[in-house]
Design a protein that fits this description.
The complex is a heterodimer. Chain A has helices at 7-33, 86-89; strands at 36-41, 44-50, 55-60, 65-71, 74-80, 99-102, 107-111, 120-123. By secondary structure, chain A is an alpha+beta fold. In chain B, helix 2 packs antiparallel against helix 7 and helix 7 (174-188) packs antiparallel against helix 8. Chain B starts with a helix and ends with a strand. Classes of the chains: A alpha+beta, B alpha+beta.
Chain lengths: 124, 342
């Protein structure tokens, strides 16, 4: 037999539904995080793009323009006005936590890591 | 009323569950020393502005070390020493004198496997050039006599390189030193839990922990042969970490891979089967120098060096036939998990 709900019960149940729905949304946003590309110039974020959407876009670096290409879930710097092209030679990156750096242009392309659990760092 | 209480209890539990997610660190990124720099502070005390202020000071410190130690211009302290090689002794800061003495001590203990006088050879190889080329054997032979840490003369606060053409290159120790200096600044500003990362040279500081006796952070070791993958991971407390690998800077000419870890004895990329070395030490300066030094010494002698150095643990990855294998010190082995092979 289902007991009659009081107004307090209904308020608490509504709160519960909101929390559960919210938690699903939160999980969804974490799941998508590994598919997000962040482009920063001198520490300032200038682009945030999905890794799942093919596109080519220019970025103005400290020394000149760079071209960033997102294709089939991977990202690369394909053109850059810098002396040694380390950024281009880094090639295509696809994993959460990967970075491409153009030091002369002060440009950092980073794939946001999906895993936020714990304190982590990379050596090598 | 019964339903209200049980529902309330569930909501409280759910909220507690939500609170388990780790607090996000205050993180800043920059570029310095030809590397990507990240500082992440995990302290729960202090405002974001205070933590940002501490990080600003730490980043400025890394910049200061770069300006002192770079050999890419003639105006830095190291640049002036190099410019006046064979001619004059140069007055430098007590800090640089101390760093040079530390470097020379590593050189002496390793029989020259680590040598900050390696500058002329490194410049000749020029791994940062747009199209690096293998130097001629003649060019390398001519430069080899200049690669000798014993010809670095320190008198008081003056440094003299005895032969024209000699040049210091602190590339094997300066990043680790910058990590330690930045960590010191953060500590002075009251930060207790943080990671400083200068190009994979890490300084981990976690109040109440020591090197490997308790875990503060998980450190992922890059796979030397599979881009974007990790060879394994280990947990550590407060200390420094550095990895030297043949995959970090290299070029391929005529089908041969030439990497940036030069053996000072031959002037050529070290060729002893080692592909990467990860060192964990009490400080990042030691970890940085030892990762290069152990790489050059090779698998057996390098591991002997690690085992005979108090407070140092390490992992040596080497080529064995078509696959990679590894050896590690006992203290490291206990904390290391190899990534599953695909």
């Amino acid at each position: 037999m289902i007991p009659t709900l009081t107004i307090g019960d209904k308020v608490l149940l509504a709160l519960l539904v909101c929390l559960v729905a919210g938690s699903f949304l939160a999980v969804g946003s974490f799941a998508i995080e590994g598919n997000t590309v962040l482009v920063q110039v001198d520490g300032r974020t200038v682009h945030k793009a999905s890794l799942l959407e093919n596109r080519i876009f220019p970025v103005s670096g400290a020394e000149g323009a760079l071209t960033i290409e997102i294709r089939e879930g991977r990202v690369a710097v394909t053109e850059a006005k810098c002396p040694n092209h380390v950024c281009i030679r880094t090639g295509w990156r696809s994993r959460g936590g990967d970075i491409i750096v153009c030091v002369p242009n002060k440009v950092v392309v980073r794939i946001l890591a999906a895993d936020k659990a714990g304190v982590r760092a990379i050596t090598g | 009323m019964h339903l209200q209480l049980s529902t309330l209890g569930f909501v409280v539990l759910l909220l507690l569950g939500c609170n388990r997610s780790p607090k996000r660190p205050v993180t800043r990124e920059s570029t310095a020393m030809n590397s990507f720099v990240t500082i992440a502070v995990y302290d729960e005390s202090g405002t974001v502005d205070q933590l940002n202020d501490a990080i600003d000071s730490a980043l400025a410190e890394i910049q200061r070390i770069e300006e002192m130690a770079t050999d890419y211009n003639d105006t830095s302290q190291v640049g002036r020493i190099n410019l006046h090689a064979g001619k004059d002794s140069i007055l430098v800061s007590p800090e640089l004198i101390a760093l040079l003495r530390t470097s020379i001590a590593f050189a002496e203990r390793s029989g020259g496997a680590f040598d900050v006088a390696v500058g002329p050879i490194v410049k000749t190889w020029d791994f940062l050039a747009a199209k690096p080329r293998v130097p001629s054997r003649d060019a390398i032979s001519r430069l080899l006599p200049l690669i000798d840490y014993r010809q670095i003369v320190i008198a008081g606060e003056k440094v003299f390189l005895t032969h024209k053409g000699m040049a210091l290159d602190l590339g094997g120790i300066a990043k680790g030193y910058a990590v330690d200096r930045a960590a010191e600044i953060l500590r002075r500003k009251g930060c207790k839990q943080f990671i400083v990362d200068v190009g994979g040279n890490l300084g981990v500081s976690w109040e109440g922990t020591r090197l490997l006796d308790s875990a503060a952070a998980t450190i992922l070791v890059r796979h030397p042969r599979r881009e974007g993958e990790f060879f394994g991971e280990f947990r550590m407390g407060t200390g420094g970490v550095s990895t030297s690998g043949d995959y970090q800077r290299y070029f391929i000419q005529d089908g041969v891979r030439y990497h940036h870890i030069i053996d000072p004895a031959t002037g050529l990329p070290t060729s002893n089967g080692v592909v990467s070395v990860t060192i964990v030490a009490a400080d990042a300066t030691t970890a940085d120098a030892l990762s290069t030094l152990v790489f050059v010494l090779g698998r057996e002698e390098g591991m002997r060096y690690i085992l005979s150095t108090p407070g140092v643990e390490g992992l040596i990855v080497f080529q064995q036939g078509d696959s990679l294998s590894f050896v590690s010190s006992a203290g490291f082995e206990n904390r290391f998990s190899r990534s599953a092979a695909p």
